[in-house]
Design goal:
heterodimer; A: 455 residues; mainly alpha; disordered N terminus; B: 398 residues; two-stranded antiparallel sheet; 7% strand
Chain lengths: 455, 398
């Protein structure tokens, strides 16, 4: 080539010719699948060994699980003996769980009344759906109504039976709330105005002053309430006593009430603990420390044995109510500490700025302090909710038939005697699903609310 | 205008009306609250007295001396069926503390291991650790305890076919058996040597720190101390002729005799408690170590601190500040959670005292009060110590 001819022709310049070293091999790829695997799985000899060990663990765990739960599992059998005869202990015996599925979910609720539970929970979902619809502006009101008014509606769905005057009014309020939520959602999505405004327009008050429009709106709400009152008086559901409640349904009822109660009560207790009034601060602190320092099970036991003693002789408190009271107070004490943490994280300048703006105590708390405190504590608050949801299993110890005790009952059924692992596995999935979704939602919420702080 | 007015009038009387006065309001609210609380208290107490008199119940503590008359399946301290109720209370406390102590040790070890695995540079190990934490943290502890008990320990083979390791450790449906140490004559000397070495090591560490602070000279007190604590008792033990025997469990008839027996309920309880708590500890360890910024490691290197010292002297002290408070509260949680023993029949405080004794004696109020008092004392003592520690390690700023 030309190079070689140059070298051979001009001997003198031989020493000066630039001769590149042979190129080094390209460095191992740091991008793509191979690069990622090299960096994260096989970066060194010990790391490779760890990867092999980990892969072995994962493989043996999942192969065991899949073999047991799917491949060797029995899907059709009449009793546990048949399952054992077919596969022994190497495969799961699912027919027992399938047969008990209604009980695991609804407890001993009468089978012909189960639609009421489904309907009650569907009503809650329907109530909450507008919160995620675009164009709906009264989200705060809808959310609050779901927390404050929905329970009245649900209580009649679940309990039924004789309703006194007050309960009738409350149920009617629940029905009104539900109808209002959807009417407002529709009018806001359609016309961008809340239902009461649209009603005032329809009634011919659109040109009239603000005050007149409001009174028309109020009148239409009153009419709605009257209609629901008439409906409710005509509406009768047979009574289902709380001792028939059970399964996932009961777990959701207890944790739902506990969660709903614990947040406002926790806020009040936390404010009380930080109050400048010594007596209020002392009382709140005593309550919080007392309930936080003892296990939930002792509180459940205490309320189970002592609540009947605390109340007048003729007042009967059913066991579910005792458990709910205990769970609520316990959860409130824990929530109070979480919220206090949030309050302490708010810089003093925020309080001072609120004072300087001339806001009173409750105004500065509700408008300035609490929104910030709750926002930064969202992960912890949701963590507390998850803890509460898991803690509801403790009511099984004082004799309520929640999801856990229902699953234990499967193995005590004479036909499925000793069938424990399968129902436990099944309800573990249920608990995990609920808790995991809650925690993922909180992470999502946290990220969305922190959007303002992101650079 | 307003300013001059208020400064001049301040000494005489407030300009605002009586109702808007902050002090008056605060006193009024507190009186109102006190009245509500006292009213509620009076209502509850009067109802209770009435209820108790109609049911013929008594609230006295006199039953504590009476014979309890029931057996307890597992006792750490000696107990016979005829012993008093107060003894039952003590047995319950001892059992609860036993579970808590063992659980804390295991939970810390597993939690530390998983927490470090969670930060591994190896993706697979990291992911396994993450899902270990996610799955176990998101399922109820009670379910885990019951699942371990009914799903594992009661399904183990009978003693005759028990699983054994080296003819010393046995696992069957009566529990876990391992050799028990039996102290012979003169073993006390070894124990004394151990205590002496421990005290000596503590003194050595204290002296080394003093000297380093005064002169800057380093002395490897920790390694020397550990060596002394191991070597001195061992030497005494060997010199005094190994006065320690192992009582090995052996199958006799239908059951094992000898050795230490951990009943299935205790084993299930400890396993479930430590695995459940280890998830929380793992997260605490991870967040603690990650809270120390990487700049600290780089700064240590820039100052020429040995890599082996960086972790111990730079990272760990700062991480511990973040780790210790939540760690202690997890220990407290574990202690409180040990009360779930009642679900599988392990006789802890709640089980023998708040359940069995309460049902048998009917003294609801004293029994509930004593149980609550025990847990309150434990919690408040620990949180008091915790607050002291927090104040000591608080960042000294400005």
């Amino acid at each position: 080539m030309s190079d070689s001819t140059l070298v051979t022709t001009d001997e003198a310049s031989k020493a000066l010719v630039f001769k590149p070293k042979p190129p080094r091999p390209a460095p191992p790829s740091t991008v793509g699948v191979a690069g990622w695997m090299r960096a994260n799985l096989f970066s060194s000899v010990p790391n490779t060994l760890l990867t092999i060990l980990g892969a072995y663990l994962v493989y043996s765990f999942f192969s065991m699980l899949i073999n047991w739960a799917l491949i060797n599992a029995v899907w059709e059998a009449d009793n546990r003996r048949e399952c054992l005869d077919l596969v022994g202990r190497s495969g799961a015996c699912w027919p027992g769980v399938v047969e008990w599925l209604p009980n695991l979910i609804y407890g001993l609720y009468p089978k012909d009344q189960v639609w009421r539970i489904n309907f009650g929970f569907l009503a809650l979902i329907a109530w909450a759906v507008p919160l995620w619809l675009p164009g709906v502006r009264s989200k705060v009101a809808i959310g609050l109504s779901a927390v404050l008014i929905y329970p009245f509606l649900a209580s009649y769905f679940f309990m039924g039976g004789e309703k006194g005057v007050i309960w009738t009014l409350l149920i009617a309020l629940g029905v009104t709330g539900f109808v209002w939520v959807w009417l407002t959602t529709i009018t806001e999505m359609r016309y961008g105005l809340p239902f009461t405004r649209v009603m005032a327009g329809i009634l011919g008050a659109s040109g009239k002053p603000e005050e007149a429009q409001r009174s028309y709106g109020r009148a239409s709400m009153g009419a709605l309430f009257l209609i629901s009152l008439i409906v409710v008086t005509q509406w009768e559901l047979p009574e289902v006593q709380t001792r028939f409640w059970g399964g996932l349904f009961l777990t959701l009822v207890i944790s739902g009430i506990g969660i709903t109660f614990s947040l406002p009560a926790g806020v009040l207790l936390a404010l009380g603990r930080r109050s400048k009034m010594p007596l209020i601060s002392l009382l709140s602190t005593t309550f919080i420390e007392l309930f936080r320092s003892v296990p939930l099970i002792t509180i459940l036991f205490m309320f189970n044995t002592m609540l009947p003693l605390f109340l007048p002789v003729d007042v009967e408190v059913n066991q579910l109510l005792r458990a709910i009271v205990a769970v609520c107070l316990f959860a409130a004490a824990y929530m109070a500490e979480v919220i206090r943490g949030g309050l302490q994280a708010i810089p003093k300048g925020q309080y001072e700025a609120a004072d300087a703006m001339g806001l009173g105590y409750w105004q500065s708390i509700t408008l300035i302090i609490m929104p910030q405190a709750l926002k930064i504590m969202i992960p912890t608050i949701v963590g507390n909710f998850i803890g509460l949801f898991k803690d509801t299993t403790l009511v099984s110890i004082i004799g309520l038939f929640d999801l856990l005790s229902m699953s234990r009952a499967v193995g005590e059924d004479s036909r499925w005697l000793g069938l424990f692992i399968e129902p436990f596995f099944f309800i573990t999935l249920i608990y995990f699903l609920f808790c995991f979704l809650m925690s993922q939602y909180s992470i999502n919420l946290e990220r969305r609310l922190a959007a303002g702080a992101r650079r | 205008m307003a300013i001059t007015e208020s400064t001049s009038v301040r000494t005489s009387k407030p300009t605002s009306s009586f109702i808007n006065n902050e002090t008056v309001r605060s006193v009024f609210y507190q009186i109102l609250t006190l009245a509500c609380v006292l009213g509620l208290g009076w209502y509850l107490v009067s109802n209770t007295i009435e209820n108790m008199s109609t049911r013929g119940m008594s609230a006295g503590f006199d039953f504590l001396d009476a014979s309890a008359g029931f057996g307890i399946s597992f006792t750490l301290i000696p107990y016979r069926e005829g012993d008093s109720y107060f003894r039952v209370f003590q047995v319950g406390i001892a059992n609860t503390l036993l579970v808590a102590a063992i659980g804390i040790v295991f939970a810390t070890l597993i939690g530390l291991f998983v927490g470090l695995a969670r930060m591994s540079s190896n993706w697979l190990i990291r992911t396994i650790a993450r899902w270990y934490v996610e799955v176990l943290r998101n399922t109820p502890l009670l379910l885990q305890i019951i699942a371990w008990y009914f799903g594992v320990f009661t399904l183990l083979p009978r003693p005759r076919d028990s699983l054994g390791w080296g003819e010393m450790f046995f696992l069957n449906n009566r529990g876990f058996y391992f050799p028990a140490p039996v102290a012979g004559d003169g073993f006390g000397v070894t124990l004394a040597a151990f205590a002496l070495a421990l005290a000596g090591a503590a003194g050595l560490i204290w002296w080394a720190r003093k000297r380093q602070e005064a002169t800057g000279k380093h002395f490897p007190a920790i390694s020397v101390g550990i060596a002394a604590v191991i070597a001195l008792p061992l030497l005494v033990f060997l010199v005094s002729g190994r006065p320690l025997d192992w009582e090995i469990p052996a199958l006799q008839g239908f059951n094992f005799r000898g050795g230490v027996n951990v009943p299935p309920s205790l084993a299930a309880l400890i396993l479930a408690l430590s695995i459940y708590t280890s998830c929380f500890i793992a997260e605490i360890v991870r967040s603690g170590i990650q809270s120390v910024s990487h700049g600290q490691t780089e700064a240590a290197r820039a100052l020429g601190v040995k890599p082996s010292w960086t972790m111990r002297l730079i990272i760990l002290p700062q991480a511990l500040r973040v780790i210790i408070p939540p760690l202690i509260s997890q220990y407290l949680n574990l202690t409180k959670n040990s009360s779930l023993a009642i679900a599988i029949g392990f006789p802890d405080l709640v089980s023998v005292w708040m359940n069995t004794s309460l049902n048998q004696s009917g003294r609801a109020i004293p029994i509930v009060a004593m149980t609550m008092a025990f847990y309150c004392i434990v919690s408040l003592t620990v949180s008091f110590a915790m607050n002291r520690y927090n104040q000591r390690i608080l960042l000294k700023e400005r």
